Structure formats: structure tokens, C-alpha cells
Task: structure prediction
Amino acid sequence: MNTQFAQLIVNGIAVGSIIALAAVGLTLTYGILRLSNFAHGDFLTLGAYLTLLVNTVGVNIWLSMVLAAVGTVAMMLLSEKLLWSRMRNLRATSTTLIIISIGLALFLRNGIIFIWGGRNQNYNVPVTTALDIFGVKVPQNQLLVLGLAILAILALHFLLQHTKIGKAMRAVADDLDLARVSGINVDRVIFWTWLIAGTLTSLGGSMYGLITAVRPNMGWFLILPLFASVILGGIGNPYGAIIAALIIGIAQEVSTPWLGSQYKQGIALLIMILVLLIRPKGLFKGTI
Result:
């Protein structure tokens, strides 16, 4: 039983690190653009399918992930140009933005099904044996996923804390109008927000496809854990989102022997509700 519990924790850390990457992108778009983007999960799916597209023509899986991130960022910037910038100019309400994002999510998902079909697919990668660490079977792909997630999060930390654009992003998150008056190039901040969100979300989708399978609804099933991580960690706080995502990922996996896999999302929402009853603003202060 102890070995099984340890195995579930390892699986939970792998899933949690993927949720963390995408949740950081989601919390940045909310913290800076004030956008609750329900299409975020489907951009994650798009990243996985673009990786599949490049990988199936013979490109190395890691280079495929990089090229897929470029494609996902391009699609996010296109949605910014066609939708979100116009909605901000019109001072659209948060309800309007949510409805538009749900419409965008459905458009992306059905577009993916139209192009790639609805069946599960897998990357063209060599089969590797799982490592035996103190009796716990750890697939090498899970270790790679965890390592990549840590590298991406460290890069994000450096960008936010030690670069000029990171300081500008924090200023815009605190007060957009004041930042604009202070001479900060808000359009440049918005571009970087989508660049970071798209890159991390696409990587999350690619990694999720690597440890499970690539399927059209993979991002849709992650959208509730994503929002739970963002809210639980404090809206607009990327570090809080990372910690909350790991908590939710581990809790979801550990609960499966008792509740079954079909109740995983319910566990994520239950944890969020219980914490919010005690700390209504989440575990951490909701600011970049």
C-alpha cells in the first residue's frame, strides 16, 4: 500500500507540474488583461496537436514542442488582435469576455476534431523502460516532464523578477491606467503576456500528450483544475498557481483508489472550495 501511495504521489507531481505550466499562463492573462479565458484549455490541446503534427513528419519530439509553442503563441496573438483588443477598446464586461472565450474554446476544439479526428493519438517516440526508484516505477517521460516544468518555471521567475519587461508586467497588473500614464508600453506588455502564456500552455499540452495520449478534449478536462489552481493560489499570482497546481495534481491522483478516476475534477473543486471558505482570496496574495 505504501508503494502504491508513493506511485500515486509521483503521478500527481507529474500531472501537477503540467497543470502548473498552463495555470501560470491563465493567471497571467487574468492578472494583466483581466481576462478569464475559458479557451485556455483548448490552446493547451492545440499545443499538443501541433507537436503531433510536426513530430509525425519525422522531427525530434523536443524540437516539435518548441515549434508547436511558436504556433500556439501565434494563434493566441491572432485571438488578441481579432477579439480581445477590440473587446478592451469597447470596455466589454467580464461576462461578455467569458462568453466569447467559451465560443473560442468550442471553435478551437471542433477545428481540431475536423483536422485530426476524434481518436486518441500518440507521438512518435521510442518506448523507454520505467525506472525503479525504491520500488516505485517512474516512467522516464514523467521525469523529463518534471525537469522541463522546473526549467520553465525558473525561467519565468527570472523574467518576472530580474528583467525590465517583468517589472512592467507587474506594474500593469497592479494598475493598467497608472502604468500607461507612467510611460510603460502597455501594448508591449500585452504581447509578452501572450508570448509567455502561449509558450507555457503549449509546453503543458505537449507534455500531457507525452505521458498520456493526444486527444481533442484533453484541455477541456483540465480547464476546471486550471481555474481551481488559479483561484486557490490567488488570482494573478503565478507562484501561488504553481503551488496550488501541485496540491491539486497530487490530491487528484491520491484520491483515485477510493473514489475512482471519474471524480478527479470534483476533488480539485472540493479543495478549492474548502480553502476559500477559510481564505476567501486564496492561499497567497493575488498579485504578480
Remarks:
- The chain is about 75% helix and 0% strand.
